[in-house]
């Protein structure tokens, strides 16, 4: 019983390739498990989802309309002068928030307005305590 160390010139080449057969086997087993269990997971309660409807916008006199221009200026209602700051908008919204019933706030944002301007407006309105905030969109052209 002997062991030969060193070489007679009959050295085996070192195998430097990765054996991917076990990886493929594991992936196939996982795939089969996911295929079998996905119908069980996706067995959801059947509900009637609401249908899409496109209604014309008819502003209510009680609702507050805030317009955000593409430059980020905020306009209150139909006033042509912009609101001075976020604090001024907060003060105006705080007065509206205590009314019963509380008015809805509809934000009309310019298509080219920065998201930051719209986000600040929404945050200010929510901090003032307004529960219902929505967006006014222009419907697509008919035809």
Description:
By secondary structure, the protein is α/β, with parallel strands linked by helices. It has a domain at 64-135: Nucleotidyltransferase, domain 5 (2-Layer Sandwich). 32% of the residues lie in helices and 11% in strands. The chain contains three helices and four strands; from the N terminus they run αββαβαβ. Strands 2-1-3-4 form a four-stranded mixed β-sheet, with helices on one face. The radius of gyration is 32 Å and the shape is elongated.
* Gap from first CA to last CA: 94 Å
Fill in the CATH topology of the domain at 64-135. Answer: Nucleotidyltransferase, domain 5
Q: Assess the beta-strand content as a share of residues.
A: 5-15%
Q: What about the largest sheet?
A: 4 strands, mixed
Q: How many E-type strands?
A: 4
Which structural category fits the helices and strands? alpha/beta
Fraction of residues in helix: 25-40%
Give the SSE string: HEEHEHE
Keywords: Cell membrane, Membrane, Protein transport, Transmembrane, Transmembrane helix, Transport
Subcellular location: Cell membrane
Pfam families: ExbD
Protein name: Biopolymer transporter ExbD
How are the SSEs placed, and which strands pair?
Blueprint: H1 21-41, E1 64-68, E2 74-76, H2 86-97, E3 105-109, H3 115-127, E4 133-135
Parallel strand pairs: 1-3, 3-4
Antiparallel strand pairs: 1-2
Keywords: Cell membrane, Membrane, Protein transport, Transmembrane, Transmembrane helix, Transport
Membrane topology: Single-pass membrane protein; Single-pass type II membrane protein
Main location: membrane
Give me a quick take on this structure:
By secondary structure, this protein is of the alpha/beta class.
């Amino acid at each position: 019983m002997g062991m030969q160390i060193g070489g007679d010139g009959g050295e085996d080449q070192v195998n430097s390739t990765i054996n991917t057969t076990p990886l493929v086997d594991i992936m196939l087993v996982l795939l089969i498990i996911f295929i079998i269990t996905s119908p069980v997971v996706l067995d959801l309660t059947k509900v009637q989802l609401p249908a899409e409807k496109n209604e014309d916008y008819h502003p209510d006199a009680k609702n507050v309309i805030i317009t955000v221009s593409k430059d980020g200026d905020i306009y209150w209602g139909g006033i042509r002068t912009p609101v001075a700051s976020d604090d001024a908008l907060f003060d105006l919204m705080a007065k509206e928030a205590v009314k019963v019933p509380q008015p809805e706030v509809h934000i009309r944002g310019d298509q080219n307005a920065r998201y930051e301007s719209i986000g600040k407006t929404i945050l200010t309105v929510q901090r003032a305590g307004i529960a219902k905030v929505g967006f006014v969109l222009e419907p697509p052209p008919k035809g």
